[in-house]
């Protein structure tokens, strides 16, 4: 019984470490990304027939993804954590 609990604790610790290695955006940046992404997507959908609208919708989706996952490939390329 004791070894099962130790194994579970170890797995939880490993999962936490893996998540922190994948996330490279802090919480404030995540919130700002979500808000900016929602606004950009909203305005993009209002003008969905134009190139600007399609671009705003695309960028908004990227920002929403960045905010929800906490991962930014640009940060990774710049080696910024």
TrEMBL record:
Domain Inner membrane protein YgaP-like transmembrane: 23-80
Superkingdom field: Bacteria
InterPro entries assigned to the protein according to its UniProt record, in alphabetical order: YgaP-like_TM
Name used for this protein in its record: Inner membrane protein YgaP-like transmembrane domain-containing protein
High-level lineage: Bacteria, Pseudomonadati, Bacteroidota, Cytophagia, Cytophagales
């Amino acid at each position: 019984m004791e070894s099962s609990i130790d194994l579970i604790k170890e797995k939880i610790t490993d999962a936490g470490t893996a998540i922190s290695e994948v996330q490279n955006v802090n919480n404030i940046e995540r919130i700002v990304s979500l808000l900016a992404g929602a606004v950009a997507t909203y305005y993009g959908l209002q003008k969905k027939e134009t190139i600007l609208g399609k671009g705003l919708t695309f960028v908004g989706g990227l920002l929403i993804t960045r905010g929800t996952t906490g991962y930014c490939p640009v940060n990774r390329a710049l080696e910024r954590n």
